[in-house]
Amino acid sequence: MRYISTRGQAPALNFEDVLLAGLASDGGLYVPENLPRFTQEEIASWAGLPYHELAFRVMRPFVAGSIADADFKKILEETYGAFAHAAVAPLRQLGSNEWVLELFHGPTLAFKDFALQLLGRLLDHVLAKRNERVVIVGATSGDTGSAAIEGCRRCDNVDIFILHPHQRVSEVQRRQMTTIFGENIHNIAIEGNFDDCQEMVKASFADQSFLKGTRLVAVNSINWARIMAQIVYYFHAALQLGGPARSVAFSVPTGNFGDIFAGYLARNMGLPISQLIVATNRNDILHRFMSGNQYVKETLHATLSPSMDIMVSSNFERLLFDLHGRNGAAIAELMANFKQGGGFSVEQDRWTEARKLFDSLAVSDEQTCTTIAEVFASTGEVLDPHTAIGVHAARECRRSLDTPMVVLGTAHPVKFPEAVEKAGVGKALELPAHLTDLFEREERCTVLANDLKVVQGFVSQHGNRGKPL
């Protein structure tokens, strides 16, 4: 399997090199040169497989030639064996032909665990083989950071620096990052917003001279391995609901477009998916594109669903690449114009093509709380605010009541007590056993100015397990 850049100027790489590269050298994102496609008979034969075995079937083509089958199987079994639910990603019914896919049974109670617990093990495997050491600099709007730290904390050849916007993540999210100690773990609170953090990460990948010879690795969803791992649970959900003999629809809470892009890939790999709903909050750049062909950067707003408080959606470039016939030069020009002017529209026929599969909705904080309250009243289930946005969008945008609708349950509600409290849900939320003392644990975090040179200086000074790089 070879991977190419969405901007057409970077060399094609194998999986191992893509894993370590993250962002392409031309500023683009890596995608498979050719997507594997499975027959309906092949997909049907996977019904009833344990999650780790299904993951092997779905992801094997992506790592072919880089990781031996036996090694990959062991990595997957270890990754998903650490989840708290035997089904790994169980489905819970909310209403008639309406389901929530619970993706929060991993160590950090968020869907990011599906990819980042795997990513840590893949990095350990590849770096040990290469006898190489790397630095991770990642940006998080809440959940990526804790999942990345948890996934990489035991990696012998990784130093990890996670940037989060100061005082703009929930307390549970922050503590899940700042209470994990290790010589290779560094939490940085940036006096800015998530997009500031993300821009610093992109700038650091573009010029890595501050590392003095060590290379950067991405844990954000720009890393292809993140997208690859998320494809699996679309197959898992569909197989539980009669797929591939019948099609399934998905509503996906998304800010960076990575999770829903995985669903788009699953469909292109042969899984019958009739509809993908982009569910977002007031920071609605994706909804404005899907509903009106306007991809325009606007002011960031703090909401009750902070993991989607994002102005610019990094992974959207991967979809644009396909919509433009995989023309890297066209995407490079489009993204350059976006950087200069802050917005764009695409040709009408390309936008119309996207609308055949995608619908979208922007959901307010008030609607989010109403949905949490309504679902609790009718089912006794408590939703986190992001999942509630997915449910609300599913009910507003659903094309067919005959098609099973699956909402991706992206996080455990205990991570967002403010939203649950505002919704008036009286049920006390308890942290899982492994986190019961979270609020008593010591925290370790460094607050830094919103200044790229300051952040890069900190990374250079504290890398290599506390020794300057």
TrEMBL record:
Gene3D superfamilies attached to this UniProt entry: 3.40.50.1100, Threonine synthase, N-terminal domain
Record's catalysed reaction(s): O-phospho-L-homoserine + H2O = L-threonine + phosphate
Pfam families (alphabetical): PALP, THR4_C, Thr_synth_N
Domain (Threonine synthase N-terminal) ranges: 2-80
Enzyme class: lyase
Pathway as given in its UniProt record: Amino-acid biosynthesis; L-threonine biosynthesis; L-threonine from L-aspartate: step 5/5
N6-(pyridoxal phosphate)lysine: residues carrying this PTM: K112
GO BP terms: threonine biosynthetic process
Domain of life: Bacteria
Stated name of the protein: Threonine synthase
Species whose genome carries this gene: Pseudomonas fluorescens
